[in-house]
Amino acid sequence: DAGITQSPRHKVTETGTPVTLRCHQTENHRYMYWYRQDPGHGLRLIHYSYGVKDTDKGEVSDGYSVSRSKTEDFLLTLESATSSQTSVYFCATSTGAVDNSPLHFGNGTRLTVT
Amino acid sequence: QQQVKQSPQSLIVQKGGIPIINCAYENTAFDYFPWYQQFPGKGPALLIAIRPDVSEKKEGRFTISFNKSAKQFSLHIMDSQPGDSATYFCAAGYSALIFGKGTTLSVSS
Q1: CATH for A4-113 (2.60.40.10, 3.30.930.10, 3.50.50.60, 3.30.70.20)
Q2: What is the mean pLDDT of chain A?
Q3: What is the DSSP letter of A85?
Q4: Residue B99: which of B18, B47, B23 has the closest Cα?
Q5: Which of B46, B94, B99 sits opposite A99 (nearest CB)?
Q6: What is the pLDDT averaged over residues A47-55?
Q7: What pLDDT does A2 receive?
Q8: Which CATH architecture has domain B4-108?
Q9: pLDDT tens-place string over residues A59-94
Q10: Any CB–CB contact under 8 A between A52 and chain B?
Q11: Subunit contact B97:A45, Cβ cutoff 8 A
């Protein structure tokens, strides 16, 4: 799994509170991604990064922000959590663009917003 | 919204059977078609991938068939085993991957 650590692994939070999920990688992969996985929706891309301080939006970016100040760390922030953001969040990395390099996924963070 | 449509949603086969999972895409610019395998509690992992310049690719017991004109591709698992029980995702893309909704495969012994 390319040395990907997601923290926390589980979190329960209340509606309206800010939440930050962390992804840490030890493989020096250039690209990092945040996906959410929901029953009936598969995996959907939230944001991705193609280098330090270089990020872009995915297909479901509303309500989320990201930051990447170091190669190894990619943070996902929910500024004001909502129940619709209850999901399993996966971080992934790749050495190059997705059409040339496989995605390596972490083991996920299960977030529950009550 | 670009889509990748995957079917069936779930599949049950007996050991030794050949489950087939199908995917269809819309965007003809897509040039990379991977399949990912996910076990419970784990992240997905790349299983096999194909590009549109070939019609078939085999890796061990796993085969991708690709039909460019129909914009469809499928995963075949030969001699399926209980250890193949997992969720399978197809994906397609070029700058970003669009995933199908997944197929939960159960192989009974």
Answers
A1: 2.60.40.10
A2: 94
A3: G
A4: B23
A5: B94
A6: 94
A7: 58
A8: Sandwich (2.60)
A9: 999 999 999 999 999 999 999 999 999 999 999 999
A10: no
A11: yes
